[in-house]
Amino acid sequence: MARISSKKIDVGKILAEVSDGAAGGIVLFIGTVRNNHQGKKVVGLEYEAYERMAEAKLSEIEDEARRRWPIKRISIVHRKGHLKVGDVSVVVAVSSGHRAEAFEASRFAIESLKRTVPIWKREVTAEGMTEWVEGERIEKLAVSQEATSRGTGSRRRPSRGTSR
Q1: Could you tell me which CATH number the domain at 3-138 has?
Q2: How far apart are the C-alpha atoms of 73 and 130, rounded to whole Å?
Q3: Cβ of 138: how many Cβ atoms within 10 Å?
Q4: Rounded percentage of the chain residues whose pLDDT exceeds 90
Q5: What is the four-CA torsion angle of 110, 111, 116, 119, rounded to 10 degrees?
Q6: Cross-strand bridge partners of residue 96
Q7: Rounded-to-integer distance, Cα 61 and Cα 76, Å
């Protein structure tokens, strides 16, 4: 179910994909484009991806989540292209028998995506400026050193600035 999409993400469809009668909980993380970053007014983002590799990495993240937690279903979808403020940029959905596992697997998935998947974002400011930006990471992750050491794929966008 891991995929990169150039079309609007259908959150309801993803929720249906992970629904399972044996699941006692579903965690749905929805990342959206916000209107500011580091004191600048943002009017949109442009996402680029090395699509084949990005989808392979997303699948690896889903597989790793399945190995670590007793989840029922998982789906990760990330947008590419131009998005405006309020648009959904990424969705991670996880169903599990219990809420704790669903929350942990979801957190693992979004943090792993941010760290390892070759997707880059460029901010478009109200002044018409564009800049490749690096995302903000949560410092205290419940991710083991083993998973961190596996994220060896390069995320640096060649000759255009930094990764997200």
Answers
A1: 3.90.1170.40
A2: 37
A3: 10
A4: 73
A5: 50
A6: 25, 71
A7: 9
Interior angle at CA 42, CA 13 and CA 136, nearest 5? 70
Is the distance from CB of 8 to CB of 88 less than 8 angstroms?
Answer: yes
Report domain extents, the chain: 3-138
**Which single residue is written with the structure tokens 């150039």?**
6
Q: Residue 79: name the closest of 53, 42, 51, 47 by CA.
A: 47
Confidence of residue 77 (pLDDT cuts 50, 70, 90): very high
The answer on pLDDT for 149 being more than 70 is no
Q: d(Cα 97, Cα 29) in Å, to the nearest integer?
A: 18
Tell the burial category of 12 from Cβ atoms under 10 Å away from its Cβ (0-12, 13-18, 19+).
exposed
Average pLDDT over residues 88-99: 98
